[in-house]
Amino acid sequence: MIPNNYTDFQYALEESKPDHSWPEGLQALWYVAKDDWQKSHAIAQDLHTPLGNWIHAYLHRKEGDEFNAGFWYRQAGKTYPIISLEDELQEIVESTL
């Protein structure tokens, strides 16, 4: 079941894997929230959408690769954020719900 809000998403992190019915973008966000950068990146890099680009940008920002992150933010039509990673994760999750 797709979460209704960010709190529901956070509760879903108690599970061992994301719900298979979730859209791929939301699954990628679940994996990064569970600190599985590689699995999240594997999904995000195959999402050729503004959301996929935004997740991809977030992942590279999280790993500290500002140059690569900047490229993906531009691809997503976003400016490089000045908010915390946690706040940005919430913003991205909420944009998918």
| Contiguous uncertain segments of 5+ residues | none
| Percent in helix | 55-70%
Principal-axes geometry comes out as globular
Largest sheet: none
What does this protein structure show overall?
The model has no long low-confidence stretch (mean pLDDT 97). The longest helix is centred in the middle third of the chain and has 14 residues, at 50-63. This protein has 97 residues and is an all-alpha fold. It has one domain (6-96). It contains six helices and no strands.
What distinguishing features does this structure have?
97 residues; mainly alpha; 64% helix; 6 helices; globular
Task: Note the topology.
Layout: H1 6-12, H2 24-33, H3 37-44, H4 50-63, H5 66-76, H6 85-96
Helix pairs in contact: 2-3, 2-4, 2-6, 3-4, 4-5, 4-6
How do you describe this structure in short?
The protein has 97 residues and is mainly alpha-helical. It is built from six helices and no strands. It starts with 5 loop residues before the first helix and ends with a helix.
